[in-house]
Amino acid sequence: MEVVEDVVIVGAGISGLTTSLGLHRLGIRSLVLESFDSLRITGFALAIWTNGWRALDAVGIGNDIRQQHQALHGNVVFSRISGLQMFEKSYEVKGKHGDHEVRCVKRKFLLETLASELPSGTIRFSSKVVSIEESGYFKLVHLADGTILKAKVLVGCDGVNSVVAKWLGFKKPVFTGRSAVRGCANFNSSHGLDPKFMQYFGNGIKSGTIPCDDKTVYWFFGWYPSSQGNPSTPVLALHCFHLEKLNKNPAQLKQYMLNKLGKVSDEVRAVVENTDLDAFRSSPVTYRHPWELLWGNISNGNVCVAGDALHPMVPDIGQGGCAAIEDGVVLARCLGEALLKNQEQDNKDKGEEGKEKYKRIEMGLNKYASERKWRSIDLTSTANVVSYIQEADGKIIAFLRGKFFAPILTRLLFKKADYDCGKLRSP
């Protein structure tokens, strides 16, 4: 049995729920398909910079998120080899659009807040997409349970292994050779850390801590598991085998991390020690080549992608989540312009064929793709450059990173965050 839906969004992650909420604010219903049986909280927390807050304000939940997360005052960079501080920068600076704002947000809280603003029944859980096919001006979305949805618009927000991105012709994201472990430590009383982003670099290892509130601290640990510590050496299959072995023994992975932290403060070491074992799971870091975004099809007809399905990037500039929220706002705006005009046209001529509606949708998605293409290329390219500088090994690069590159990179982060994706309705 085929069920007709105006807008089908695959994936109830950050970009999918933001898009759905943006459409809801405009009076447009959407159906969000989630393959899991509940909201996924992989990653535990994420940094939201100024641009992300503007986008959250656009969909009306910025203040709800702010009230539960403390503002960060700055970032401090240390050498994990010597333990010495290399650089410090305040986040209390002004940009083109006003004061900068940086907070570390718990992913679970963000997703639950987005979902709570949606009408009941918007999210359909345990709904895995297995294939997509053409059917005139519709796309037939086949689910694992045998259901077939007939979508007027299909949006892929289904992450790095996106079925929709594959249908559009995108290749699988590229493996960097690096692994990452992320988690949140919850304290019964105040953790005592300053509201600052603490980073540690050295010998190809990067780690850091970011307070979310006075009792929760997000941490991350990135490294090259190969014996040489060289990102070009590991083969993905062998790498994944190595990760699988570590993931089967969280206690071993936790001890491995503690041994590799280097010269960090006792407070930072206590954050990792205070984290439950079920948080210790390593995953490969992947990204999409910027030139694939340049030449690829972000949209095709009435289909498009957003979030990690569009621009998976290395996490070194903290813009992956922010970009996903931006995508949702821009996509909702462009789709809203197309679909609301269609409603006016439908009221004038009920017998009109679907061609005009399809063309308007196609134009709206092309507008979205055009706007997000260069922003995505800019962010993924910048993230790759920052990653290389932060992860590079050797005494010379370590010296340059501490004395010269750190302030330059920090200014670059503010520049990328000094961006406004606009409101849900065009002026």
Tell how many strands the DSSP assignment holds. 19
SS content category: alpha/beta
Unreliably modeled segments: 227-238, 346-351
Largest sheet: 8 strands, mixed
Compute the gyration radius: what is it?
A: 22 Å
> Roughly what is the average pLDDT, rounded to an integer?
89
> What percentage of residues falls in helices of 4 or more residues?
25-40%
Please explain how this structure is put together:
The protein has twelve helices and 19 strands. The protein has helices at 14-25, 50-58, 62-66, 107-116, 163-168, 236-247, 250-260, 266-273, 290-295, 320-348, 355-391, 395-417; strands spanning 2-10, 31-33, 45-48, 74-79, 85-90, 94-95, 98-99, 103-106, 123-124, 129-135, 138-143, 148-156, 174-186, 196-202, 205-211, 216-223, 282-287, 299-300, 303-305.
